Amino acid sequence: MSSVDTPASLAGRSDFLAIARWIRTNSRVLDLGCGDGSLLRYLKEERGVTGYGIEIDDTKLLACVKNGVNVLQNDLESGLSEFESGSFDYVILSQTLQAVRHTERIIRDMLRLGREVIVTFPNFGYWRHRLQVLGGHMPVSGDLPYEWYDTPNIHLFTIRDFEAFCESHQVRILERRIMDGGRTVNFLPNLRGSLAVYRCSSA
Amino acid sequence: MPPEGSVGTVSPKFERFDEPLALKSGARLDAYQLAYETYGSLNADRSNAVLVCHALNASHHVAGVYADDPENIGWWDNLIGPGKPLDTNRFFVIGVNNIGGCHGSTGPASINPATGRQWGADFPVVTVEDWVEAQARLATRLGIQRFAAVMGGSLGAMQALQWSISLPDRIGHAIVIAAAPKLSTQNIAFNEVARQAITTDPDFHGGNFYSHGVVPRRGLRIARMIGHITYLSDDAMAEKFGRELREGVFKFNFDVEFQVESYLRYQADKFAERFDANTYLRITKALDYFDPAAAFGGDLNAALKRAQAGFLVVSFTSDWRFSPARSREIVKALLHNRLQASYAEIDASQGHDAFLMEDPRYHNLIRAYFGRIPL
Predict the structure, then answer these.
(1) Which of A50, A65, A82 comes nearest B331 by C-beta?
(2) Catalytic residue among B47, B59, B154, B233
(3) How far apart are CA B65 and CA B89, in angstroms?
(4) What mean pLDDT comes out for the span A57-77?
(5) Beta carbons of B344 and B359 less than 8 angstroms apart
(6) How far is CA A103 from CA A34, A37, B177, B261, B269, in A?
(7) Does B349 qualify as catalytic in the annotation?
């Protein structure tokens, strides 16, 4: 694997670099909840990918246009009917699955649109989170940076939960990378990993 | 004084074409004139030209003011000018009055060389495709092989879309605002009411009212009123006028009572003074006929197969005449063809007219998009 430079725009998003390493050059990518488009821009410049981002927020949409990436203003929750089945090599959902209402539908849609899907999420089972719950509080950390009353996250889950979900929903896990503070965690990942990055396909 | 950031004082220019223009209807215009305006300067390699297409009621006077008519500000002056979202310091912007128009390009009120009299009813029905062809000839005349972008709102956006299909190698970007890939049945119905208002006006004289020294004012006024209602949202009208009465109490007669009546009558009067009834008929027909998918068995995907441009598609949430769902139809076909495309749905309350308003979310987006177009 060739080394991937860390551009300033990707700083603080260790999952982006993990994702970028998996994306083949000149592939077609759909990035759901693409934010300011920095991942797509990076993939476009470094991997020659083509594709689109989906973003609901006006300010982030504008940032995408400034970043020179294709972006479509759309609500992930209202479906992705504009897109035809199998029209992408990768469909990416980074740190958003825990914030969507219709979890099963979005995973199903992603698998319909892309040959592979890449999902990243904060691991609720991370030991610091567990300690905070044991201490009587909802967890707050770098990857879960919200208080209970202002969090957009409505479906918190652990690495073990996600893998059980894949098992019961005919999702094949092709590869995973569990991280903490930008470093890969191999030993006791559901305890020691704060961020999970998965590459999956239909089983 | 022109407003700040304005292109300032402008004057229309005219180009005459003697090469016949074969129209989609089968008719032919042997010679014609196009009125246009330009803002900014064409760069050395002629790569910075942007064509701005007008909609139903507008003209080539897109930006700036006239020296002898300083109140007559271009219809998209809030968007186009030095330092504005379409920055004339960087781009060379062209506005063209379409054929069949009534602002200086050859139209129904022009002299028909075959008879020596005004065309009137004999002026052919023109289409969006015909306009695009005529615009392309003007571009060629001005030494512009390829537009950096073609932009329009409403019917103007249909022209931008048609450009991407008819002349894919002559357009870099299509900026398609408040558009639809074709009119809905309801839209055609509204247009028909407007046309009926005009054609049943006793002063219409079958379209040959010029020789009678009259204009079908009543018809034009009603046409404008119904059009205007459809360009606004229910909420925007309620906010602007409510049920406010001019004199505070009911008068139990049919004079102007509600403020909205007063507004509509004022708009109607203004319009009837400056717009040609035959032009109005023809432009509404061009709207009704526009349907690039029709030649491909109704398949918009197939129609856009030839397109190469990058697209920015913008819709407005309260636009019920050309709703966001219609813009999404266009986006869907762009995605099918794997074209470079961005889509924004601006949360605006003003209805279809929102495309002419100065909304920062909308204008910043246009600015950012033009900023990414390399020259």
Answers:
(1) A82
(2) B154
(3) 18
(4) 96
(5) no
(6) 17, 23, 33, 51, 56
(7) no
Q: Is the pLDDT of residue B303 over 70?
A: yes
Buried b (16+ CB within 10 A) or exposed e, B287-301: bbbbbbbeeeeeebe
pLDDT at A77: 84
User: A 71-110 residues with CB below 8 A of B?
Assistant: 71-74, 82-84, 87
Size of interface A-B (CB pairs under 8 A): 47
pTM for the whole structure: 0.95
* Rounded (10°) CA dihedral A147, A181, A24, A85: -20
Judge: A65–B332 Cβ closer than 8 Å, yes or no: no
- The three-class DSSP label of residue A69 is coil
User: Which of B227, B217, B176 is CA-nearest to residue B57?
Assistant: B227
> Of B189, B171, B356, B365, which is closest to residue B287 (Cα–Cα)?
B189
Contacts 24+ apart (CB under 8 A), A164-172: A165/A107, A166/A198, A166/A200, A169/A104, A169/A107, A169/A108, A170/A202, A170/A203, A171/A107, A171/A111, A171/A200, A171/A201, A171/A202, A171/A203, A172/A200, A172/A201, A172/A202, A172/A203
Average pLDDT over all residues of chain A: 92
Do the Cβ atoms of B177 and B153 come closer than 8 Å?
A: yes
User: How much is the average pLDDT of B37-60?
Assistant: 97
For residues B372 and A66, the answer to whether their CB atoms sit within 8 Å is: yes
For residues B350-372, give the mean pLDDT: 97
Instruction: Note whether ipTM > 0.85 here.
Output: yes
**Position A6 pLDDT exceeds 50:** no
Q: Give the residue carrying structure tokens 């906010």.
A: B239
Q: Give per-residue pLDDT as tens, B96-110.
A: 999 999 999 999 999
Neighbours of A21 (CB within 10 A): 15
State which amino acid sits at residue B118: Q
Q: How far apart are CA A35 and CA A17, in angstroms?
A: 16
* pLDDT tens profile B66-99: 999 999 999 999 999 999 999 999 999 999 999 9
Q: Is A149 helix (H, G, I), strand (E, B) or coil?
A: coil
User: Rounded CA gap, A160 and B179, in Å?
Assistant: 48
